[in-house]
Fold:
Amino acid sequence: QLQLVESGGGLVQPGGSLRLSCAGSGFSLNYYTIGWFRQAPGKEREGVVCINSGDSSTYYVDSVKGRFTVSRDSAKNTVYLQMNNLKPSDTAVYYCAAGCGVRGTIEPAQYDYWGQGTQVTVSS
Structure:
């Protein structure tokens, strides 16, 4: 059974940091482009970043450039999202997703498998 499990969310003050994890089971994440998405209350799900299969090149949405960093740990079959200098506008449920044959896109419809999400709240 193919499964993605996110973890690492929580409550953090503005300017703080969190590291989200996306662990894969039943398949190797190395063969998939992994995207991180977020959905705030009352808003559509938006793509944040993706890390491509193969060369692990990355694409970031402008609002998180310089603050968020995505990486892979192949040995742990896990993708991480390091989030620094968090802002209240980053508050959302964060999801990871795996896309087969996807490259350089953070369009949710292009992704095949989704995790259950983890809540990130940035507030003082």
